[in-house]
Amino acid sequence: MSEKIILLINRDSAFLAHTAETLRLAGYRTHTAMDMRGALSVLSSERTGLIICDKTLQDVSGYDLLNFIKKDPLRDCIPFMFLVSAKEQGHALKAFEMGALDFLVYPLAPELLVERVDEVFETTRKSDPPVAHPPVAEPPVTEPPAPVHPHDNGSTDEATVVAVRRVDISRDGVIWLPGKVGKFRGSTLFVETALFGKPGVTLMMRFQLDDGIFVLNGHIKDIRYDDFQKPAWIEMVVREDEAWHRIHRYLQDNTGMPSAEPAQTPDDTFLLHPGALEKTAFRTGPMESVEVRDPSYDQRFYHSLIGKQLDNYRAITLIGSGSMGGVMQGWDVALEREVALKVISYELSSKEKFREMFIKEARVVSRLNHLNIAQIYYIGTSNDIFYYAMEFVDGKTLKELIDQESRLNVLKGLEYLITVCEALYYVHQNSIVHRDIKPANIMINTAGLIKVVDFGVAKTSDSKTKGEKSMIIGSPLYMSPEQIAGLTLDYRSDIYSLGATFYHALTGSPPFEADDYKDIMAQHIARPLPPMKEKNPRIPTPLAAIIEKMMAKDPFDRYKDCQTIANELKSLQTRILKRLRQSSEEKAG
Amino acid sequence: MLILVVDDSMVARNILKNVLEPMGHEVIEASNGREALKILEKLAKEVGCVLLDWNMPVMNGFETLQAIRSDKDCGHILILMVSTESEDEFIERAIAAGANGYLAKPFSAEELKAKMADILKAAKPR
Amino acid sequence: MNKIVLIDCSSEVTSALAELLGEQCSLSNISSEDRIVPEENRMIVLEADASPDAIYLKISRIRAACKFKDIPIIVIKRREDRIPLEHFLSSGATEVLSLDAPPGACRQILRGHLIPNRKPLEKEMAYLVPFIENTVQVLKTTASLEVAFREVYFSNTFRIFGDISGIIGLSGESEGTVAVTLYWRLARNIIARMMNVQEERINAEYIHDGVGELINVISGSTKKRFKGTPFHFELSLPTVVVGSGHQLGHPEGSSIAVLIFDVDDSAFVLQVCLKPKKHLI
User: Fold this and answer.
1) Same domain as A369, residue A447
2) Between B91 and A485, residue with greater pLDDT
3) Containing structural domain, residue C153
4) Total count of domains within chain B
5) Over the stretch A484-514, which tens digit does the pLDDT of each residue have?
6) Whether residue C78 is found in the same domain as residue C108
7) Can you tell me the distance from the alpha carbon of B90 to that of A540, in angstroms, rounded to the nearest whole number?
8) Is A138–C107 a contact, with Cβ atoms under 8 angstroms apart?
9) Best to test chain A binding among B10, B14, B41 (most A CBs inside 10 Å)
10) Closest alpha carbon within chain C to A383
């Protein structure tokens, strides 16, 4: 129930006492004031349902007070009624223009006054009850007031029902919470959200449409709780800017419930029961049709380890995950340093063969000591969880770099490629094959240093597990033909993958592309390599030739080792730099 | 004394009010700077003290402080900033702009009383 | 030996779990969640056999009974049901596994959840201690409440559990989010004490407003402690959110510290996610 509290303001104390008594007898709690100051004092502590005011007060005019109230977002919805003496009639029209609800002149029969006041409380209960003033003697919150259904009829029947749509709502542009738009009328949107605010509070509303993200700015005009602990309906008035025009068009195009449910009758208000909202929410605009997939079991496994400790290593956050396992930022509590923790996927770690081989290789790799290789510190099992700790590289992967810049500058790419070739040469000298060279496994740290990561651990199978398709590991985009064929691998497979990696880095697209990974694999095996210069004409012919040779289908047609490649690249680099110097000197001269 | 309490939080206003009223002051409220200025347009003479929060929507406390201090009619009004912003540079800025005192949230009722007593004493003509 | 309690689980689910975790865990089965003492268990398992709404309610009641302690609640789904995970997670479940999921995966996931939470690092405590001390101080000063910091754990998602939360976005040299979450009863008690009025006079609106003010004062007074450090931040306006299960965004690669505080027989949490823009370590 809306409180029947009235604020009566008049300069004449006798009139105040008399009129207050009339209203009290009619069942209204009435507070009185003789000036604006007194009125504001009442308003700040009482949940006032109606203001009845004289034309002239002790300090200001009644119009001033009305004007003030109407600009106050906390109180502008309190009905305001003028009750003026016949001698001082003033301008009723002006009062109505300013938002007054009624204009009465006294002397007035008490019954008539009560009748008009009753009408006000009758209509406000049905339409816009003032819900947002500091109430005082509320019932305890454990028994929230009866649900307010203010729009059962009347004032919103012109509002357009839209296909319920999820939006993001924010007060500060930092924290966004979901909401659902149910209706709009003019530039007023009706949104259900768990983000609460008072009338007057400014809000942002973010829509994701096919042609971009649009943010509306506005403020809360009204908020209606059904239950104080559940999401509420907010009536938000938005600024009519460019974004609004776009959204308005969108909303108009998406009116009506998108289903065979009974069409919106005039009293089909936005106060739908939650179930109805849920049902429609999944069937709305094109953006909604994207089904949110549950995370994979692997992902969920890695997540279960966040905030935990494996032996001496604390798992801080999940950085990423691949076919082999999840990588976390970790902390070595014994040595007090950052590490990358790689947790092996449950599928691989449950295979005895894999574990044996993995440990054997990791031992060898852990002995490698090279500036451009992320070192393995430790390999272990804790609670049956198989993991290893390696050097933490703070920086970007080559993949991220390509994603960002679409492709590398030729000189930069050349420099990186030389470094990786030399690092791989060192590794191959130690009889280790990486097996999963790809842009995501080449990192550039914040100091600009290249680090090859995930060394020697990507091997899952040789001929012994051949045929287990699910065991093929690594990205098919960079796999060598012999790897795809499941043959025994040697360092020449790494040369192929490195070639494919830099093919991508320098041209901006991988050597072979297809929707299905099987098609990509087939191309690696049989299809001639598309010439690099077709994709990026700025690539020097000798560089393209080197990469194309690295990617020869037959391992015997590739380079004999990585040092040879590095040497060729270096002499090419010298020639390019020399030519650049000459041409800049010529320009200068 | 008539005190205008300006804070966007209703609870924050009530905390102040519930300490000030038993001290014998009368309290009126505003939920942002613009609202406060509107009230002062009408009641500048009556209001003796303004308690101002810093972070508020529409018009923040510092802007309000500057506006009040540039209004001749409000010359007599004491201003106490009451804010969670309690770094020295905020306090210095407020005092330089004409605040009579600064009270950092959180505060106890006793601290508020003491602060009020301080600024009232300092303002008394000798 | 990890104690795992199964609530009202069928024999199929019970034996499946015994198979997965048998050796290292002691499983007990009880018939109703009413009798559960959550903190006595390392893990709570439910079976989603009733209507989804009944399960959501059950989960949220158990989650509330945990008093913010990080006890994994695992829901075992029937094979055929296709309810999205999110619905269970937002009610308070930690993980939802299905009877037809690969046993190897389930075993690993359950084992992961059974590992005790790690202790905070020194460098993490460096920025958490000011929040802890100020939270205690704020409630002492404004509400005359003695609050005791109980523990901290770390999470990879920023999810809110409880009836009402005050959230504030942080920007500046550090970015992140701080959120205080309470159950309704404690919230009302705290706001009444802050305003120095009887609890009966505190209605929902005061609680909404007061929780916003609470997070504002906690983060505002803590901010001063970071002056001159890479953790310093600026405040935005507080956001108040009702209900449970909301997930908030957070800076990539940051962890969320969940700080639990005890007040008499109830508790509340402060979640802190703060990431300096400059690299620190």
Assistant:
1) no
2) B91
3) 122-276
4) 1
5) 888 888 899 999 999 999 999 999 999 999 8
6) yes
7) 60
8) no
9) B10
10) C111
Residue from C136, C158, C112 nearest C275 by CA = C158
Q: Is the CB of residue C185 less than 8 Å from the CB of residue C204?
A: no
Distance from CA of B126 to the nearest CA of A (A): 30
3-state SS class at A41: helix
Q: Chains near A, with 3+ CB pairs < 8 A?
A: B, C
The whole-angstrom separation of Cα A97 and Cα A94 is 5
> Residue C274 in contact with residue C168, Cβ under 8 Å?
no
Q: Give dist(CA A142, CA A229) in Å, integer.
A: 10
Q: How far is CA C209 from each of CA A40, A227, A229, A565, B13, rounded to the nearest angstrom?
A: 20, 16, 13, 68, 11
Q: Do A72 and B2 touch (CB under 8 A)?
A: no
Q: Are residues A405 and A375 in the same domain?
A: no
**Residue in this structure with the two tokens 């270096």, named with its chain if needed:** A570
Cβ–Cβ pairs < 8 A, chains A and B: 38
Show which subunits contact B, needing at least 3 CB pairs below 8 angstroms.
A, C
C15 and C142 part of one domain: no
Nearest-Cα residue of chain A relative to residue C206: A134
List, as ranges, residues 26-85 from C with C-beta within 8 Å of A: 84-85
Give every CB contact of residue C102 below 8 A, 6+ residues apart in sequence: A297, A346, A347
What is the ipTM metric for this complex? 0.88
Q: In whole angstroms, what is the distance from residue C272 CA to residue C156 CA?
A: 12
Residue A124 pLDDT grade (very low, low, confident, very high; cuts 50, 70, 90): low
Set of chain A residues whose Cβ sits within 8 Å of the Cβ of B11: none
E strand or H helix that includes residue C274? strand C266-276
Residue A96, CA distances (Å) to A77, A101, C8, C142 in order: 14, 7, 65, 45
Residue A537 preceded by cis peptide, ω within 30: no
| pLDDT tens per residue, range C217-270 | 999 999 989 988 889 998 888 889 988 788 887 777 788 999 999 998 899 999
Indicate whether A583 and A490 sit together in one domain. yes
A107 preceded by cis ω (within 30°)? yes
Q: Do C219 and B84 touch (CB under 8 A)?
A: yes
Of C97, C114, C131, which residue is a domain's last? C114
Closest CA to A250 of A157, A160, A169: A160
